[in-house]
Amino acid sequence: xxxxxxxxxxxxxxxxxxxxxxxxxxxxxxxxxxxxxxxxxxxxxxxxxxxxxxxxxxxxxxxxxxxxxxxxxxxxxxxxxxxxxxxxxxxxxxxxxxxxxxxxxxxxxxxxxxxxxxxxxxxxxxxxxxxxxxxxxxxxxxxxxxxxxxxxxxxxxxxxxxxxxxxxxxxxxxxxxxxxxxxxxxxxxxxxxxxxxxxxxxxxxxxxxxxxxxxxxxxxxxxxxxxxxxxxxxxxxxxxxxxxxxxxxxxxxxxxxxxxxxxxxxxxxxxxxxxxxxxxxxxxxxxxxxxxxxxxxxxxxxxxxxxxxxxxxxxxxxxxxxxxxxxxxxxxxxxxxxxxxxxxxxxxxxxxxxxxxxxxxxxxxxxxxxxxxxxxxxxxxxxxxxxxxxxxxxxxxxxxxxxxxxxxxxxxxxxxxxxxxxxxxxxxxxxxxxxxxxxxxxxxxxxxxx
Length: 450
Prior knowledge:
alpha/beta; 13 strands
């Protein structure tokens, strides 16, 4: 019998181990942590350009990792947003397109894929999904978070905060001077608006504290260098033109990924990515091969090779039935390229309404309505929110806050037609029949009749 020399044996064993790790053995796979805010407008963090807000932990994460400048959810409501993130499937096709909704029975999520690959998969915080069989997370509490992170098996943790969701009661509003806040142009600037923004900012800073505490527990467990750590803002805040809309402020999200020794600190990407892309990407990075009919696609090439190209278009869908004080039926669909945005208001002749306009949840809307009687800017933001045209089209390079509708400008007719064809094709692929699909949703008990 012939024997290999010891040196050859060691070299062969080393090569075997390298192949084993590269092919994704449990020992070589990274952990994953996703920290999710609750209704945080994407640019309300220091690293995304807000010079007033205090978010040191989010900013430090960006300094250590990769900041995505063009990341999107397809629905600016909590339940549809979270379920598309966890399943990699768009809301209408999964069934979870109204708020407070559930995916179709039998739908699989990240819990199944990662648990089958040997991961402990836990959730700490907000759920807002269903049915349970589709999201069988292990429940993790803040008290046993450190224990979960210290286990021997690889883990996938979702930490879902309740901040900065209304009523904005957490944090210290006294740390902010309302006169120094810059009110964005899609909001009416008055004392009531600034008072609301101070409370909202305070709760973002308190969320930032939570994020820092999770990161510190990860470091204390000795797992920081072996973990893909992600922060995301979920969707726009509960201000007009944010949550419950398909405008940029609603659908655009903050997304930052840190992976020590794999991602260069302080890097950025302008690639168009969506929440449905996140699960396929993490499976790819963790070398987990699954056969699943995702709507999303892995953007690992953006992370590992610095590519600036991923999706040509990202899509949006909003359903008012099922939300508190929602319009009887006001389906909104959208498509966005790197520069342009097309929005279709499929039942535009009625008023758009929700709890902000009917219940004044933020404490400022009634003051806007009163001011709109004499102030042109107040009139513009109020009427633009509740009474919309059938088609909206925006040049986001020139008009990032979507204040100038170019739908009737003949210079853009070909671009509008092209994007509309792509949007209609996407809706067909999703089984989305617009108003007909919207009316399959059971109205919320507080829905008002138009």
